[in-house]
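Here is one such protein, fold included:

. . .
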Amino acid sequence: MNKNYVGQFVGVVPPSAFATQGYPKQLLLMFDSLALDWGAAGMSLEDRKIIKDATTDINWLLKSEMLTLLSGLQASNELRPSAEAIQHARNTLGVSQVTHERFNAYLLRKKGIDAVPIMSPFEDLDIDSEADRDAVIRLTIRSFPVPTDVTPWEAIADFRSDKDARDKFWSLKQWINKVGKNGLKNYEVTDELKNLLNEYNQSMSLHKLKNEMGVFEVLVTTTVSVAEDLVRFKWSNIAKSVFQVHKQGVKLLEDERGLPGRDVAYIARAIERFK
């Protein structure tokens, strides 16, 4: 395994995550990589069939380093973790039940990997339970679009590598980290996400309108000014007019960073791209 996963944001998924193409694509809009235990003890016949049917996609993701096997991360050395290891994980995590994915995420975090256990897309979340960081992440994932089966994996990879999108992602990650400490209920986190997305979309619509009007005004005044200065050979004025166009673009970018709801701008960008 060539990639260094220390510090990476990794979703630990069960085989059932690959029952459709849409779900792993949705997850990879959030996570740097997914981690799968291909040799999990007690894997059902249904899970084995899912893995077999998804082999082409899995191999592509492995080659692209968007997916890794837990054996490559040296997390799951024991196919059947000892009772002592399970109990220690329960005590550390403060939960009564430890799933295979949760246990492996626990091991990966001890290795410096920001690993999060992810279940199926149909996982139930008690809306009245307090939302810890893992729950906030799962609830946030549900706000992302589910790309269609015909959406190529390359489109997901291109979106993930876009610099502007990545800058927006870090704002979202910071928001997740903060909200995961606030003691909110699951339903409150969901409502907060919806409100922020609504605020951002409304602000962005107004921002785009101002952008179009501002650019139009600058172009009109600049074109007239440049035309006049060309006749009069006033080259310094022409340079100032061109600079004014650039200055307007910079101002609009600065304004966008201060828009309400900007913490979820990455989600809005993903929805615009894949909805």
